[in-house]
Request: fold
Amino acid sequence: MPIFEYVCEDCGIKFEKLIRRTAEANDLHCPTCSSDRLTQQLSTFAAHANGRAAEPAMPSCPGGVCQTPGLCGQN
Reply:
C-alpha cells in the first residue's frame, strides 16, 4: 500500500494519502478546500544509519599536551 504525496492546485497545501485501491485515487479531494485539482508529487525518503559515530582519526591530547612530541603539532 503506497503512500502518495499530493499538492492542491487551488489552495497549495501539500499532503500525503495512503492509497489502497486505484478507485481511491480517483475519488481523492484536498483535505483543506475539498478541491479535486490535485497534482501527484515525487516522493522523497530519508535514510537513517544505525550504529555509533566514527572514531576520530587522531585521539585528542589528554590535558592539552601530547605525549609524543610533533604528533599533533601542539608541542
About this structure: The longest strand covers residues 3-8. The two ends are 62 Å apart (CA to CA).
